[in-house]
Amino acid sequence: MSFFKKFTETVSKGVSTATEKAQQTVEITRLNAQISGKRKEIDKLFANIGASVYEAYLAHDLSRAESKVIPGCEEITAIRGEIAALDDRIKTIRNEKECVCGKRVPYDTRFCPSCGHPFPEPEPEAVEESPIQADPYVPVDPDSEPEIETFGGAGDLDSLETKAPPTPPVDQRQICGSCGTPLYADSHFCPTCGQSTR
Q: What are the boundaries of the region Disordered (predicted)?
């Protein structure tokens, strides 16, 4: 019975992980579409600003363009702020952060693998513990296992093997000489200890 329980838990974990990944992909695609639309708005504003400046140039009075250029620039600044917020949302979903050099790295990285920049240690989040509430009318025996109705012979379950979910492939062309962490091919610094790989 315990094997069946482990097997069921493994399958349900895999299904929930796949569902979560699919939801994340849909959300990231939606956010990228919004960013793309906002960049097109910025391109139109740049074109309008350029046209206004050129018309003022032809009139030999560039001050005439000011009334159209300043509001356009302010609108571009506001849209860029919206794009930055959407980009931050994507980084949060992907569990990434951005280095000062512009490279995106996993959130738990301590040193940028590209430039070696150290990241500050993240502060641990306070977790509120909530008491587990049980049904007062159902007695709970901690030593008993729940009974599971099976169909077919129980011997069939013994022949099944539990397989661990596959681990994602890691590019292991380099290994840090200081701490042994696997490095990506383009890593110039170890993301764990900050040691130079050159």
A: 141-172
